[in-house]
Structures are given as C-alpha cells and as structure tokens.
Amino acid sequence: MWRRPAWQVLRQLRQFVRHESDTVGSLVLERSMNRVQLLGRVGQDPIMRQVDGRNPVTIFSLATNEMWRTGDSDVTQGGDISQKTTWHRISVFRPGLRDVTYQYVKKGARLYVEGKIDYGEYTDKNNVRRQATTIIADNVIFLSDGGMKEKV
User: Fold this and answer.
1) How deeply is 42 buried, as exposed, middle or buried, from its count of CB atoms within 10 A (0-12, 13-18, 19+)?
2) pLDDT per residue over 66-108, tens digit each?
3) What is the secondary structure of 56-115 as a DSSP string?
4) 3-state DSSP assignment of residue 11
5) Which of 42, 50, 99, 104 is the most buried (most CB within 10 A)?
6) Is the distance from CB of 62 to CB of 90 less than 8 angstroms?
7) Can you tell me whether residue 13 is helix, strand or coil?
8) Which distant-in-sequence residues (6+ apart) come within 8 Å of 61 by Cβ?
9) Would you give the DSSP letter of residue 139?
C-alpha cells in the first residue's frame, strides 16, 4: 500500500479544514469531503442498466480483503491468520468510463476504484424498505489483464 508523508496529506487537507469558517451574512460555508479508494477484485461481470429513460449505469461488485494475525505479540510470527472479505457495489455513470468498464472488465479483474460513497433507500418487491450503500466511481484503473474480456 502506498503511503504519503504526513506533511503532504496535511497540505492537501488544508483546503478542506479551516479553523475559521467562511461567513457570508448568516450563512456559514464549510468544506467537506466524500472520497473512497478501493483496491480489489471484481466479483461479477458488469451489467449495464437504464431506468426510466435516465442515463445508463454500469454496475459491478468489488471485493476487498482485510487480513490480520491473531496472537499475543506483533513481533512473533506465531498465531493464525484471519481474513475478512468486504463486498462493495460499484456504479459508473461517467459516459466514457461507463462504456469502457462495461466492455473490458470481467470477474476476477484487479481494479483500483476512486469515487464517493452514496447511501440510498428503496422498497423491494415485497414492499420492504431497504438501505443500499453504493460507491459512485469517477476513476477506475485496470491493474491486471488476467480478468479482462477479449477484444471483439
């Protein structure tokens, strides 16, 4: 995993964090950030959907893994290795990126995805209210060609 020095991160965040709020009359303007970075493998071939005449969207799932060693000490190599896999629903709306993602990504491909997290609600076919978390991708980087579809 890449790590940036702390001073670079602080310099980048300085534009979002202020000790004093910018004030316009009685309106207080504060900056915030909603960014997600994921590195993982695609769990299913992408599908493209278009609902009610709106812009189409490419949807796929991405698995990320977290591993840790169970045991008393971080220094020793003893202990069992545990792993947790988390599945993320990725939606791509940007026209060029949406089409390339749909055409060339397939199950097993290793991807880096940047975007924002979106929480939504919907009612399923049994009239039960559900919550959904989606990553709205604005950048996808292909890291392996082993999972890429053949060009037609």
Assistant:
1) buried
2) 998 887 655 556 678 889 999 999 999 999 999 999 999 999 9
3) PEEEEEEEEEEEEE-SS-SSSS-S-EEEEEEEEEEEE-SHHHHHHHHHH--TT-EEEEEE
4) helix
5) 42
6) yes
7) helix
8) 42, 43, 44, 87, 88, 89, 90
9) E
Residue found by looking up tokens 């300085």 in the block: 14
Using left for φ > 0, alpha for ψ between -120 and 50, and beta otherwise, residue 108 falls in left
pLDDT band at 1; cut points 50, 70, 90: very low
Q: Which two tokens stand for residue 127?
A: 């009239």
Cα 129 from Cα 127, distance rounded (Å): 6
At 7-38, the pLDDT tens digits run 666 666 665 555 555 555 556 778 899 999 99
